[in-house]
Amino acid sequence: MTVRIRWVALLLTIVPFFNAGCAKQVARRNPRVPVTVAKVERRPVPLELAASGTIEPIQTADVGSQVGGVVTRIRIREGDYVRAGQVLVELDSRPFHAALAQARGVLAKDHAQAEVARLDWERAQKMLQQNLIAQADYDQKRAVAQSAAGVVAADSGAVIRARLDLEYASIRAPITGRSGKLNVHVGDLVKENTSEPLITINQISPIRVRFSVPQSDIPSIQRYRDHSPHVYVRPAAGDSAESAGKLTFVDNQVDPSSGTLLLKGELENKSSEFWPGEFVEVRLVLAMESDAVVVPAVAVTRGQQGTYVYVLNADSTASARPVTVQRSDDVIAVLTDGVDPGETVVTDGQFRLASGSKVIVRDAHTVRQQ
Q: pTM surpassing 0.70?
């Protein structure tokens, strides 16, 4: 009897520990997975392409000299904003004034001689009608008059050329823009029509951005090209401020070496935010899809069976659901089917889930701390 009592007491002692161990195993078997979630939304979403680009000027002018001479004055400083027609550099104009005066004097002399020859020809015409002069004499006077008129025309051209040379002694900006480095100084002898520019001017307002997209995007560009696509540009350094412009150029062929298509956009750049040669980030917005079903991009998982998301159920469980992704970027994914607006999808912690897993919804800050 005593032995039986001892066995009963021992069993009563072991059973609670056994039940506690089973409970712990069950608890470990069905833990709640901490997750973060987001709502499925229906909202307008831009159809856009992302690319890296380079800023380039609308126009570039390498300013040289059309005449030779000594530099007497420089009217601007390096980096100044100049307007078309503004004087940049002045050459010694005295030789050109002298050449113009000489050309005008020659013209006046030859003009007087031509007038005498013309009057002599007119008199010969009257004398020929009265048979007072031979035909050969008349022909000679006519030739002299016409030759003198040709000399006057040549002299007039020489005067025009001398006047132009005098104007070219003041070297002017051919376009409006920002001036660059000056390659000439006061006292330098400038030769005419040299290949090295005296200064380079870049038109930077408006300004152009050039970028390339993969050839796989050509159908979308062709489809929406007539819808006035917009270009949004921001510095590659990470500045969030964007400048808006418009698409102005689509190349007529794909680059065979890279498989990309060249495009260009135009920006106002009134505040000179961008400079030629600068690397930038570009968004080409082709159109606006007004009724898109959107989830955060991190909610979409790709597996062997395709793409899917985990949807939060009313009983705090999560179920894997196949979805079709129309397009996505680093922020959002646009879905064509699989979920409905208003449903809740898991955005973090889904890699620890299986269909039917119990979850506990926590904010992103709490999950990061665990």
A: no
